[in-house]
Amino acid sequence: YPILEFDPSPRAVIEPHAPRPLNPPPEACVLVFFGEIIRKLARAKRLRRVITLRSEMGPHHVYEMEVDGRRLALFHSAVGAPLAAGLLDEVIACGCRYFVACGGAGVLDREIAVGHVVVPISAVRDEGTSYHYAPPSREIEACPEAVRVIEQTLIERDVPYVKGKTWTTDAFYRETPAK
What we know:
The protein is α/β, with parallel strands linked by helices. The protein has three helices and eight strands; from the N terminus they run βαβββαβββαβ. The strands form two sheets. Strands 2-3-4-1-5 form a five-stranded mixed β-sheet. Strand 3 and strand 4 form a beta hairpin. The model has no long low-confidence stretch (mean pLDDT about 95).
């Protein structure tokens, strides 16, 4: 199966590129899946548009803002792994190196309330995009250092959270009881 034929080569036939260089680029970037957050930050005049990426869906603006005296890039990520990964690859080409994704998801555990923060520690891989970035496996573990830093940040800011496993899927209407 082609999806299981991982190629570790770092070079592709088509490589992502920056529309123009960010000099110097912010090292850290947040992929925000909540459009209302971007709009709220824009209304508060906290964002500066630094670059625009393009897809068949239209423009995807990358912004910069200052947080605790440091420059931070952020963009409204697309929902759906292929486009989200493509945009992420292009932001990497712009020079960003450290990323956090902030989005929403459904939950299968009725004990987790809507809006509660969940820090992913692993994921069941049930989509196709991740198989192009890591060797095939049923599950993938989150970077322990990243989890530690996220937990530390949430604790410092007194934000309640749980840690848990996620399920990445391209077909949420096919989440059957048997699966």
